[in-house]
Design a protein that fits this description.
elongated, alpha/beta, Rossmann fold, 14 helices, about 55% helix, 7 strands
Length: about 450
């Protein structure tokens, strides 16, 4: 059954007659709608075709797109996670987020702590400023014009003045006022009273072969000589002339002379003094105190003694030190090397072995005597530890248990103390300087 065409001429006329009043004129006839109708149909068909094709495309490509999105999303997620996991700041942020956010109480406590620290810092700054101001005032009171920078020199001058006064009182037995300037004149050091012949201790023997004794028990003389040159030649070359008290056969002075250093020897033994003179060295065959009194004050550059002071009585040693301060020029050096009794192997072996030793000189004692004599910068140097006797240290591998390493550490610490006390340095030297020349 066919449906009548609503666009036919008859249908149009019926509608026109029914909807248009009689008194109105009829509208002119419209052109035939056939061409427009078929164009609209074609447009609608094309649109429906495109929509159908798009739907088919979406339904076919949707799984592919979803899989691609999933893969890309997974890769991006892994990249972001790797970056975030390596950032310590973001790790802290995650930790705070895991706890449920920032704790206000902790924030307040931290703020209070920061404030307290700031207040304490400001108080500390104020205390430091007060201490600095007090030290500045003390320095100016102690050393006017220079303050703390010159306090050390002023204290040294005061110490030397006090020591000089003590020496004058001790030697002269008077209450004379202290000298006007640091130091002591040669006239302030009268000769020490000598004991009666019957009371004098026997310090040497004409029958004792001391040269042979030293060669056998002290070591190779050439090796010892080169050791002394290595230790002291550079320092002595800057302070001339150099006086060697107890120079023996003059080996050390001979090597110093070869370096162009002006040297003088003091040796009371006639045979050794003759051998020293044979080397072309000026040698005075007398006691050190007697010769030092004969030379002008401040005329010497350096005095060195090696293994001599331990052979002297206490009064003679103090007299030698006090004369050395007077006869040395400003900022000159005094060097004395002696066995180290603080190392027990020296005290119980090599020191007692030598029958001409009078008493052991502890390093602290000799440094004290040099300071009391008037030297300013007194320092100690230690040589030749008895390493052949050292107790061996325990060594453990990295795979050793912790308790074993702790035990080994304790044992090694104890061994180190024993090595220092029992088998420490066998020799030491005191190196002291005279005060510098006063500035104008």
């Amino acid at each position: 059954m066919s449906t009548p065409d609503p666009t036919s001429a008859e249908a149009v006329e019926r509608l026109r007659g029914a909807g248009v009043p009689a008194e109105q004129p009829a509208a002119p006839p419209e052109p035939s709608p056939e061409p427009r109708r078929w164009g609209q149909v074609a447009t609608r068909v094309a649109g429906r075709g495109r929509r159908a094709a798009a739907g088919l495309a979406r339904r076919g490509l949707a799984p592919v797109v979803r899989r691609a999105e999933a893969r890309v999303g997974q890769r991006v997620h892994r990249m972001v996670v790797d970056v975030l996991d390596g950032d310590p700041a973001l790790a802290q942020v995650r930790e705070v987020a895991d706890r449920g956010g920032l704790d206000p109480q902790r924030i307040r406590e931290r703020d209070d702590t920061v404030h307290s620290a700031h207040v304490n810092l400001e108080l500390l700054k104020g205390e430091l400023r007060h201490v600095q101001s007090t030290l500045d005032e003390l320095g100016m009171a102690f050393a006017p014009g220079t303050g703390l920078a010159g306090a050390g020199a002023r204290y040294a001058e005061l110490r030397e003045s006090v020591y000089a006064l003590e020496r004058r009182l001790r030697t002269a037995g008077t209450t004379s006022p202290p000298p006007s300037s640091p130091g002591t004149a040669a006239a302030d050091l009268p000769p020490r009273p000598r004991p009666a012949d019957g009371d004098a201790p026997v310090l040497s023997s004409t029958l004792f072969d001391y040269v042979g004794f030293e060669r056998r028990f002290r070591g190779d003389p050439d090796a010892i000589l080169h050791t002394l040159v290595d230790r002291y030649a550079e320092l002595l070359s800057d302070h001339q002339p150099v006086v060697d008290v107890g120079c023996g056969r003059g080996e050390l002075l001979g090597m110093l002379a070869e370096r162009g250093i002006e040297v003088i020897g003091i040796e009371p033994d006639p045979g050794m003094a003759a051998e020293a003179r044979a080397r072309g060295i000026t040698v005075h065959e007398e006691l050190a105190g007697d010769w030092l009194r004969s030379v002008p004050d401040g005329s010497l550059g350096a005095i060195i003694t090696t293994h001599v002071l331990e052979h002297l009585e206490l009064d003679d040693m103090i007299e030698l030190l006090e004369l050395a301060v007077v006869k040395l020029g400003p900022d000159s050096v005094f060097i004395s090397e002696t066995p180290n009794p603080a190392s027990l192997i020296v005290l119980g072996n090599s020191y007692l072995l030598d029958p001409t030793h009078v008493r052991p000189l502890h390093p602290s004692l000799l440094a004290f005597l040099c300071e009391k004599a008037g030297f300013r910068d007194v320092r100690l140097r230690f040589y030749s530890p008895a390493e052949d006797y050292h107790l061996p240290m325990t060594e453990l591998g990295e795979d050793a248990p912790e308790w074993a390493r702790e035990l080994a550490g304790s044992v090694n610490k104890g061994f180190g103390v024993l090595n220092e006390v029992l088998f420490g340095p066998q020799d030491y030297a005191v190196i002291a300087r005279t005060p510098p020349a006063p500035s104008n």
